[in-house]
Amino acid sequence: MAQNTVFGWVLLGNATNLQRQLKSITTLHCETQLTERVNKFWELEGLRPRKHYTPEELTCEQLFDDTTERANDGRYIVRLPLKKSVPICESRSIAVRAFLRMEKRFATDKQLYRDYCKFMEELVDLGHMELAGAVTDDAYYMPHHAVVKHSSATTKLRVAFNASMKKTSSGNSLNDALMVGPQLERDLFSILVRFRTHCYGLIAEIEKMYRHVYVAKQDADYQRIVWRENSSQPIRNYRLLRVTYGVASASHLAVKSLHRAAPDVGDAYKGVADVFTRDFYMDDLLTGSDSLHGLITLQKDVAFVLSRSGFELRKWATNCQPLRERIPHVSKQVLHLLAEGNKIRTLGSVWHTDKDLLSIAVNLQELPDQITKRAFLSDSSKTFDLLG
C-alpha cells in the first residue's frame, strides 16, 4: 500500500526472505515538484495561442480610454486600474523596516549608498518623485531595494519598488488591488521574423519608458515610499508621480500610451502607426525599410511622433551606414543616442549590424558528472530560446 505522510509517499507491504539479515534497504523517491518545474519551463518557451480578452482586461482597456488625459507637455496622464473590492490599509511600518535594513547595507557598502542617493536625487530633480503629506488611509508604501547590473552601458544601479508586499493590515498588496490589463505586445517570433524581411534594419529603445507617463494625482498616494539621505535625518514620505516598474499595471499603462502616440499626432503620420503596434516589444523597437529614403523617413517620423508624447529613443543601430552617420546629429539632449559597436543585444539575441545576421549568445560550460533533472533545468535555463 502507499500512504501519503509528512515525509512524502511511503510504500508499505510484505517482504520476502525475512529470515535472512537485511544487507541493504531499497528506497524510491519521486520529486514531482521538480518534474513540474521542468514541464513549466518548456511551456513558457512555447508559443501561446491567441486568446480573447477577459472581462477584467476589457474593463482595464475601457478605463484607460475613458480616463486618460494629455498634460501640457504632451505626456499621458493615466489612472491606476484599481479593484474596488480589494482594500489595502496600513503598510508604512513594513516599508520603514525594509528601509532600515537597506541602511544597514549602506553602512557597509559606501559605493552602493552613493549610487542609491544619486538615483533618488534624480527622481526628485526630474519631477518623478515628490514629498508627500501625512499618512492617509488611501495610501500604499512600497519597500525598495537596489538592483545592480554591471553589464549595463547606461545605468549600473536601479532601485526596484516592491508593490507585491502583502504585509499590510488587510493582507493585500497594491498589486493585489490592481487589474493587470491584457498583454498588448506581439510575440517575439512575429516581431523578429518581420524585422528580417526588411532590406535595411533599424532598432532603438525608449529611454526610461515607464517614467515618461504620469500617474494621476488622485492615485499617486498608492505609490508612496519612505526615504532619507542620511540616518541622522527623519524618515520622510515620498510619492512617485510616474508609472513605476514593479507595479502590476505598469506594463499595460505604458504600452497603451505608446500605442496612442501615433493616432494622437494626426493623419499625417498614419504611415507609421503600424510600427507602434507591431514593431515594439515593450521599449524595444525593431523595424526597417527596403530603401534608404524610406529608412531615413521612418527613423525621423517615429522619433518625432514619440517626442510629441514625451518619449525619447536612444541606442539607435542600423545596418545602413548612411543613416548611422546621420543619427548622432539628430538630438543633443539624449545620452547614448547611438549604440556602440556592431554587436547589438536586442530581445535576447545579438544583431551583427556589419554582417546583418542574428545570433544567440551561448555560454557553454563543462557538463556535470551526473546529469540530473536539476542540472538539466539549470543548464537549459541559461539559454533563452527567443523563437520558442
Walk me through the topology.
Blueprint: E1 2-5, E2 8-11, H1 32-45, H2 55-67, E3 69-70, E4 76-78, H3 92-108, H4 110-125, E5 129-131, E6 144-148, E7 157-161, H5 188-196, E8 200-206, E9 214-215, E10 224-227, E11 236-240, H6 250-265, H7 273-278, E12 280-281, E13 284-289, H8 292-308, E14 313-318, H9 321-326, E15 343-346, E16 349-352, E17 357-359, H10 373-380
Parallel strand pairs: 4-9
Antiparallel strand pairs: 1-2, 3-4, 5-11, 6-7, 8-13, 8-14, 10-11, 12-13, 15-16, 16-17
Helix pairs in contact: 3-4, 6-8
What labels describe this entry?
three-stranded mixed sheet; 388 residues; alpha+beta; four-stranded antiparallel sheet
Descriptive notes:
The protein has 388 residues and is of the alpha+beta class. It folds into 2 domains: 2-45, no CATH class; 55-380, no CATH class. It contains 10 helices and 17 strands. It has helices spanning 32-45, 55-67, 92-108, 110-125, 188-196, 250-265, 273-278, 292-308, 321-326, 373-380; strands at residues 2-5, 8-11, 69-70, 76-78, 129-131, 144-148, 157-161, 200-206, 214-215, 224-227, 236-240, 280-281, 284-289, 313-318, 343-346, 349-352, 357-359. The chain has a 4-stranded antiparallel sheet, sandwiched between helices. A 3-stranded mixed sheet has the order 3-4-9, with no helix packed on it. Strands 5-11-10 form a 3-stranded antiparallel sheet. Helix 3 (92-108) crosses helix 4 (110-125) and helix 6 crosses helix 8 (292-308). The longest helix has 17 residues, at 92-108. It is globular and about 95 Å long. It starts with a strand and ends in an 8-residue tail after the last helix. The mean pLDDT is 85.
